[in-house]
Amino acid sequence: MNIRIVFGYLLVAALLTVGGCGRAHRETGKQLVVIGIDGMDWDYAQRMISKGRMPALAQLQREGTAAPLGTSIPPLSPIAWSNFMTGTDSGTHGIFDFLHRDRESYFPTSSLSKSEQGEPGPCFGRYRLPADGTFEMLRRGDPFWKPLEEDGVESWILRMPVNFPPSGLATRELSGMGTPDLTGSLGEFSFFTSALFYEDVGSGGKVYPLDLWEDRAEGTLYGPENIYLCERAKAETPLIVYFDSEEAVAKVMIGDTETILEAGEWSDWVTVTFELAPTQSLTAKVRLYLRAVRPEVELYVSPLQIDPMAPVMPISTPADFAAELAKTTGGFYTQGMPEDTKAATESLFSIDEFLAQARIASHEISAAKYAEVVPELYERADRMVAKALEKLPDATIVVMSDHGFSSWRRSMNLNSWLRDEGYLVLKDPSLAKDPGLFRNVDWARTRAYGVGFNGLYVNQRGRESNGIVDPVGAADLLDEIGAKLLETVDPKTGAPAVTRVYPSHRVFSDGGALEIGPDMVVGYAKGSRGSNDGALGEIEPEVFSDNTGAWTADHSMDHESVPGVLFTNKPLSNPAPTLTDLAFAVVAEFGIDEFPVDTTGQ
Amino acid sequence: METFNALLRSAFDALLGVLAGLPEWVALAVLAMLVTLLILPVIRWTFNHSLAERFKRGIYSGLFEIRLFNDRLGATFRGLFDVLRSTVAYMGAWLLPLVVMSIPMLPIFAHLHFHYGYSGLEPGSSTVLKAEFAADREAAKPEVSIVAPAGLSVDTPALWIPAQRELSWRLSAVEPGDYVVEIEIDGERYDKTVVVSEGSARRSPLRPARGFLDQLIYPAEPPLPAASPLAKITLDYPERSSFLFVPGWCWLLIALSIPFFLLFKGWFGVEL
Known about the structure:
With about 600 residues, chain A is of the alpha+beta class. Among the domains of chain A are: about 190-305, no CATH class; about 405-560, no CATH class. Chain A has 14 helices and 36 strands. In chain A, strand 29 (about 450) and strand 30 (about 455-460) form a beta hairpin. In chain B, strands 1, 3, 4, 5, 8 and 9 form a six-stranded antiparallel sheet that branches. Chain B has a three-stranded antiparallel sheet with strand order 2-6-7, with no helix packed on it.
């Protein structure tokens, strides 16, 4: 065992294990552990250290090295982690945002991975032979564990974001953020209610009705599309909630699986089986939360997790590694980001309920009050570091984060701003409610538009399907828009709304991926961010708005305002002021002096 | 039946207690040998060897006819028919031994299934305990209480489902051990065994009523008292893997029996 890379998401500790391997590895006499903590903020960590609440990081700061770590442009997790693992930037690895745009339809598309279905076979009655499906990771470039493995250095990569499907290049891998649920989405919960009238949620899940009978409520739990059926339909299984007439207790039956819960209680992992066709079925793992029995029955079913014991999509290297982990730990969320923020932002969870779910997702349940939630998360990360220091006293321990965090108080809808400045033109400006997804945009008169949290695109002729801007004049247009953005002031705060703009051809390497991403990245001022609706192509009446949602902190801002952290217990042989430099610094610890071949970090 | 099951439970507990320290396949190999030694005398006395020999000769003669006259279509078909007829007849000769063998084998396999067919509850895991009433029970919720020993915890109040005449609780395993949960219904107490362990042990997923068939299929625990209003008490133990609806341990036992059968058949004068 020479190198183990352990990642967490939102300070969720991953499991550090030791095991055998099938490849030929050399004995380097050196161990290196990278503990990646998504979103650990340099300033906040310093405050916690000065209060004596992070003794392990304080020890690293005292005896090793500690510094802010330069993050990606923009500072979003998929980009930052891709920078780290490939040692390059977006111009080479091709991840510019959570969302990219389809040049034909202008619709936002996932930047992380895509699935493709082949041609289905012929029908036999109701059923057909299913098509082959594939998942493709859209990140380009080689991760740093490739040269390590090629050099005979064993590597374990756990919960690494933007590594789904797993690269297959490490000795052991478990995919992290970007791993979908069983339906292929990034996490769609199901919420069941017996209420006669209810409102569905906007995104992140769906509300389903329960038919109420004397002692039970009946509904249907839906799964992914049933690929064995000739007619398009989702796989489904009956869901029945039997409830007691006196006590606030109920038995939830999903298929043949029974779970008894009191109101306000979470279940352990429950196996759900969807029958697809005779002899063919699909299993998923879910957690149930019985929110209430009276006056209405309310049941939350978590997104359908890929069953690690029988994964239907590739989530680990080797394929049975996920099962090995599940046998050891008793089950875990396989979905990339298990904390169900959507259920909270859609008000189906109270803050307490969300925190309970988030703690279940990270295998640690406590009862911290709100003011203590973040400090407790930092303390938990510190305990993880302390454990690594204790278990591996001779190893090089690297603690890093992809970016920092900041309060998010004000939102700016970039598309609304472009409309007000005359760069984006609406078909019908009188519409009271914009339909979103650019459906009200007049592309024949629009010169620029925004997709994703920070991306600004020129509607360029010959590139976009309805492009009108001559490529020759695109750079001037970008300069003009950039200058105006930097002059824009938030009318409520009186402060600049944007503190930095990044023309792509100037800030990113030309590694063959520039054509995928935006022409300019917008660096919002610290404390503000692009609006959620604007990211999906909705043009709201107002450019600026208060952030009144439950998601009250963020990081998709000016990249210099939210640096990550880098702590080591001993100096690295190569300095690593930024994420891209850190990839090279890691491989250099094992004597590899060239990675990547054309790096912007070196 | 109750006494018979009690005797078999004691016998299997004693035998499997001796084998408990061995790897499971070794224990099953010992059991396969014992089962083989039990069935070979049955075959010896119930299998009609001379009749079987005649049918085997019919198969050989049919095959010989096909080989000799393979250029004559009529003879080839006649040979094929002889092979088929003799094969069916040969299999028919096994019917009586199989029926006689099934009499001792059914209770033996039933008992073994409750030792090898279920996984144990592990500390920290939970399961559902259900007490199901007879169909003529009124729909009102009965007066009920439950007492669990220290190694178990009852996590929920009793849930009454009138349409199914069913009381249920969520039960969690705290520490390894063999336990008895006491359910008191309308002043009467009913016990249910609960085993928390990973290794081989007698696990009873269902305590049956006093019917013959129920006791035959679920012999791992004494039946409920005759005057009980309950039809059964169940506890969900995770089932172990199976293939083609046959438990995995059963396939292994059958496979391990074959070499013992071939080894010992000469001693008992059994010819296939």
